[in-house]
Structure formats: C-alpha cells, structure tokens
Write a structure and sequence with these properties.
Layout (H helix, E strand, L loop, with lengths): L12 E6 L6 H8 L4 E7 L3 H11 L2 E2 L3 H7 L4 E4 L3 H4 L2 H7 L4 E3 L7 H14 L3 E3 L7 H10 L6 E7 L7 H7 L3 H11 L2 E9 L5 E8 L4 E7 L7 E8 L2 E5 L5 E6 L3 E5 L4 H15 L9 H20 L3 E2 L4
Parallel strand pairs: 1-2, 1-4, 2-3, 4-5, 5-6, 7-10
Antiparallel strand pairs: 7-11, 8-9, 8-15, 9-10, 11-12, 12-13, 13-14
Length: about 325
C-alpha cells in the first residue's frame, strides 16, 4: 500500500473500475484531476465501454472482476454496476483486503450485504458508499440549521417510471435507497417500517417509518409512467420546512417571514473521491463519511420494507 503525503510526493495509487458506464462517470471525472492515481484496469460487461474508458488511461481491459482483482492487484477498487451484476465482487475484495468504493446499494440482497459488512469490519478495511446526499453542501447547511432539534415529520418521494412488475420495491433497494439514507442522516435510526403496495404490478410503494428520536416519516416510491421524475425530500417542523430537490442538490428553506433557496455548489463525487483516497493512503476506515458497515443500516431499512410489503405487516428493523 502506498503511503500518505501530498499529491506530488505520493507514489500513484493503482485503482481498478468494475463498471464503465454512467454510474462510473462522476468518479472517473474526479480521478482525472488527480496526479496521485493511476487507473490500471477496467472491467465491464459492455466491452466497448470498458475499452473507451481504458483508452483514456492506457489501462488494461479485463474480462471479469475475479481476474481483475487477481491480475491487476489494485490498491483500491470502484464498483459501479447495478446490484444484479455485482456478484460477490465486494466479498472477494474484502477477502483480498482491497479497499473499495461502491455506488449503492452495494449488494444484490441483504444477506450478501450483511456478510460483506462483517468481512469489512473484521479486516478493518477502508470502504465507502457513494450516496451523494451525505456530501452535498446544502445537506450540511440543513444539518447545521437543525442543530440538535428533532425533525417531527419527514416526507420523501421517488417517482420515476420503470417498466418492470414490482419495480417500486426494486427502486427502493437501488436508487431510492439514497433517500432512506438521507432520512437516517436527519432523523436518526428507523426502528419500524410498514409498507403498503399499490397497483396491479406493485408499481407503487408507500412506507410508514418510525424513528428512534420520535420522527414520523413517509416515503413513496412509484414506477408509474409520468412526464418527468419527482425525487424530493421534505423535513417539516413548527414554523419551518426544508425541501430538497433531485439528488439533494437544491434546498428550499421556508420560515414564517422568509424563503431561502440554496443550490449545491460543491461536487459530491469529488469530495467522496478525495476522502476515500486519503483514507486508503492512511489506512483509516473512519476517514470517510459513509463506510460500508454504516451503509448496512440503510440497507436494513430497505430490507425490512421489502419484507413488510411481502408479508403485509409492520417489521422491526434489525441490522445483525
């Protein structure tokens, strides 16, 4: 493992990418600005996409993540493919003690996520999960505004068309899990979930959430056709409301006598990348905002919601 130091002093870290599509693009862009990183291997089911990325870095195209971990022996790994395509790449990385950054949720199912979190904890491995909300500057502004105050009511919407039966539950596990993580960040731990499905193909899903600090929450996911997606989060209290737009990139603060509108000015992907690489160089698992074992708590909420939808009952959230 390379040692810590300035960008100029460090021997470049060799990184590998499993996934070369849209999920990877923000992080590839962030890495291009750095002198302390060299992309050495790329793997993607779309070989052309892998070749296009590799060409810009003079990197090797590898046919499988197993071969990439064995042959390239990267100092760090980015996993940027949808859950069904991830296989056991995170478990393999943990076994080989390769630090990894994963675009969420980082597992095809909760049992796999739990095994991976245990392996990461045992290895004291540096990991990071790329939900953008934890690193957006407007989220920090909202957190500072709230201080120690409890959020009485939290509402979220992830309404985006998907042409699959039962897609709302799948949405929750993948894209909409970022809103669940944001709810945890602002409101504390979810203790109980009740899920109600809507539509013949379960294209709609409404979650009733109970938090340990007393917050009551509601999150709606729907894959029904609509003119444009609606992805929002709103926190409400007496005399104020905080409303976030898509990807938590905008914030509207309404108070009795004024309205303030803020737009995200930092780049969460750059901030996440910087923190992850610094933690890798220092071998410090606590150096990132959202390590994998912490993200498991968000995935536990999504798992409980899916179980509630399937069994038509309230489900307590359990991580272990």
């Amino acid at each position: 493992m390379r040692g810590a130091g300035s960008d100029e002093e460090r021997i470049p870290l060799n990184v590998a990418f499993f996934g070369a599509g849209p999920l990877a693009e923000p992080y590839l862009d962030a890495l291009r600005r750095r002198r302390d990183v060299q992309l050495t291997a790329v793997c993607d089911l779309d070989r052309r996409a892998a070749e296009q990325v590799a060409a810009g870095w003079n990197a090797q195209v590898v046919l499988s993540y197993q071969a990439m971990l064995q042959e390239a022996q990267p100092d760090a790994l980015w996993v940027c493919v949808p859950p069904p395509l991830q296989g056991d790449v995170l478990l393999k990385a943990a076994e080989q003690r390769v630090p990894f950054f994963v675009v969420p949720p980082g597992a095809a199912d909760f049992d796999t996520a739990r095994r991976c979190a245990r392996a990461v904890a045992q290895a004291r491995l540096v990991t990071a999960v790329g939900w953008p909300g934890r690193d957006a500057d407007v989220v920090a502004e909202a957190r500072e505004y709230l201080g120690a105050n409890v959020v009485p009511l939290a509402l979220g919407w992830w309404l985006a068309p998907v042409a699959e039966a039962g897609a709302a539950v799948a949405q929750l596990w993948t894209d909409a899990s970022g809103l669940v993580d944001a709810l945890r960040f602002f409101c504390g731990e979810v203790t109980r979930v009740r899920a109600l499905t809507a539509g013949a193909d379960a294209g709609g899903l409404v979650l009733q959430l109970e938090f340990d600090r007393g917050t009551v929450g509601m999150l709606t996911c729907a894959s029904f056709a609509r003119p444009e997606p609606r992805i929002e989060l709103e926190l409400l209290g007496e005399g104020w409301s905080l409303r976030f737009g898509k990807d938590l990139a905008t914030l509207r603060l309404d108070e009795h006598d004024k309205t303030t509108i803020l737009r995200c000015r930092n780049n969460p992907a750059v901030q996440q990348t910087t923190a992850f690489l610094e933690a890798v160089a220092k071998r410090d698992p606590a150096g990132v905002a959202l390590p994998y074992p912490e993200a498991l708590r968000t995935l536990a909420v999504c798992h409980a919601a899916a179980l509630s939808a399937r069994e038509s009952r309230a489900v307590d959230v359990e991580v272990d």
